[in-house]
Design goal:
580 residues; 14 helices; alpha+beta
């Protein structure tokens, strides 16, 4: 999952965008940011874990309305197109359900469990090539009609639909779809068979069959694309604006880029749902508030704003004031380390000398980087390609900060490097600081401003004229398979996520081997972690810079603040109005 840029120009103002997290609001007003914890392998739930209702939130009551103020509307609400943190939190959390999901009970644990399904899945043959899911009884849509396995199958098949040879809904996750149809020959249910290859339905059971072991299927079917859609409710592109609800809330009204109102879906049964709560009577989402104004309103907590919340982080210009006075925001303050890992990718098409890439790593000053990026409440230093939120994480520092070592690798020569940065005040400030640091090792930086609205489009072009540039990444699910292949497999150059443009057949072969291992993710998790160290030692294609950190505020009349680990923002399903 691409991490959006920490600072993007919107109306000429630096905007802190959503990232991720896994911490509960404890009301602790102690000094210093929390540190990341290495995640446990104990993540696969059971049939028992898949039974609802979700674990109650302490002190929660029903009733009232929570209003979210945002700068911009959600990118997509169609589950075939939903692939950003805000869209997934609102979509998956409130409007629709998938075959599987993640149960977080507020104690720091996380389990993949059956959501629509009775359990996380049955490995039919014991070799991960065939997975079976049975739907729970009595599941209903917003109109009281029955949710069926056929509708789940249609939703997956629909996400593979093509028009003129191209995907109709290209914005969503395509892991499961690629596994089912590796050659991408299926055209979708509109112009082809109603079911995609490898999918079979028998009553309330749905089966996925693959040509190779896919032991991470329980995670893949937790993506939004397994949300059920009745064919007669499929309005194609218009579905994005008004998806048919299978979750606890339904759309009452929606004016795109202005306001969305969700009210209770009376046909949702909490006893079937191990993941979600539905404490408020309604949620309202209002768009168009400038980022700094969002924080200003939440800080002020005026008499009409006690029920306000936002997915937006505390604005960087106000971050130090808020974190320096945590006690003033007790009960409505949330902070925590996040899963997104940031890098300065090195364009291996242009920086072909391994010693130069190694020198760039040694010359990188993380302390200065953290300082200019907002301090410890915005980012924590990191030296690994895969972060500690992924089971199997291995800690290493292949290229510790060492200016003399960098000079030695460069043989005393001066190297000129084109450093692309976002064309914002903050982007320029960071580039200037890095130019100062790299200069100490004889590395001359030419800072090149780039339109932030086309940032990923620019840096994903293999013919770009930049040598180093920032990118961020967060795992789609807790496995190195959703970190290393997207970032460092040669196939991912076409997918526009291999930003260093590294093409190493030996590395590709090792990743291909791990991705289809029949041993299960728990048994090979550390192999992914070790692979990160090998990539750095052999190729040095990136400079790991930091792990993201987030701080949020809500109004004082809102309770249940919790930093959800999987989608990585404030967990909307746990919020309630203290005094409705």
């Amino acid at each position: 999952m691409k991490r959006q840029a920490r600072f993007v120009a919107v109306g000429g103002v630096a905007l802190a965008l959503l990232v991720t997290g896994c911490a509960e609001n404890t009301g602790n007003d102690g000094d210093g940011a929390q540190q990341h914890e290495q995640r446990s392998m104990d993540i696969m739930g059971t049939a028992e874990d898949s039974v609802g209702p979700a674990t109650p939130v302490d002190g929660a009551v029903e009733g009232g309305t929570i209003t979210f103020i945002q700068n911009a509307d959600m990118a997509h609400l169609d589950p075939a197109r939903s692939y950003t943190s805000t869209s997934m939190m609102v979509g998956n959390g409130l409007i629709y359900r998938a075959l599987n999901g993640y149960r977080e009970d507020g104690d720091g644990s996380r389990k993949v469990v059956g959501d629509l399904a009775t359990d996380p899945g049955t490995d039919v043959n014991g070799d991960c090539t065939v997975w079976e899911y049975t739907l729970k009884e009595g599941l209903k849509y917003e109109d009281g009609s029955e949710i069926t396995a056929d509708h789940v199958a249609y939703g997956v098949s629909r996400s593979m639909a093509k028009k003129d040879g191209n995907l109709m809904y290209p914005e969503g996750a395509q892991f499961l779809q690629q596994w089912l149809d590796p050659e991408r020959e299926y055209n979708g249910p509109y112009d082809d068979d109603p079911l995609a290859p490898g999918i079979a339905v028998d009553g309330n059971k749905i089966t996925f069959s693959f040509d190779k072991p896919r032991c991470e299927t329980p995670f893949a079917v937790a993506m939004p694309t397994t949300a059920p859609i009745p064919p007669d409710k499929d309005t194609k592109n218009d579905f994005d604006q008004a998806p048919f609800s299978s979750g606890p809330y339904k759309i009452e009204s929606r004016i795109v880029s202005e306001k969305t109102v969700l009210v209770r879906n009376e046909h949702w049964d909490a006893n079937s749902d191990p993941i979600r709560h539905a404490y408020p009577d309604s949620f309202e989402f209002e768009y168009g508030t400038q980022p700094e104004d969002i924080t200003t309103r939440l800080v002020a907590n005026a008499s009409n704003d006690e029920n306000l919340a936002s997915f937006s982080l505390v604005h960087p210009d106000q971050l130090s004031a808020v974190t320096g006075d945590k006690a003033s925001y007790e009960g409505r303050y949330l902070e925590g380390p996040q899963k997104y890992t940031s890098y300065l990718s090195i364009n291996t098409n242009r920086v072909t000398d391994l010693k130069v890439r190694q020198a760039l790593n040694h010359a990188f000053n993380r302390d200065r980087w953290i300082q200019v990026n907002g301090g410890e409440y915005a980012a924590l230093p990191n030296t690994t390609l895969m972060g500690p939120t992924v089971p199997g994480y291995v800690d290493y520092d292949v290229y510790p900060f060492d200016v003399e070592k960098a000079k030695e690798l460069l043989g005393g020569e001066t190297v000129k490097i084109r450093y692309a940065h976002q064309d914002t005040a903050k982007g320029g400030e960071i580039a200037t600081a890095m130019a100062d640091e790299f200069a100490k090792a004889g590395i001359e930086i030419e800072a090149v401003p780039v339109d932030p609205l086309d940032w990923y489009g620019q840096i994903a072009d293999p013919d770009n004229s930049f040598d180093i540039y920032w990118n961020g990444w967060g795992e789609d699910w807790p496995s190195g398979s959703t970190v290393f292949p997207p970032l460092y497999h040669s196939n991912s150059i076409a997918g526009e996520t291999n930003y260093p443009f590294i093409t190493e057949p030996e590395l590709d072969a090792r990743m291909d081997e791990l991705m289809v291992s029949p041993e299960g993710f728990e048994n090979i998790a550390e192999e992914w972690g070790k692979l990160g160290q090998e990539i750095m030692e052999k190729y040095a294609p990136s400079i790991p810079t930091d792990l993201s950190y987030g701080v949020w505020l809500t109004g004082s009349n809102i309770g249940g603040q919790y930093l959800q680990e999987n989608i990585s923002t404030i967990d909307i399903t746990k919020l309630f109005v203290r005094e409705p």
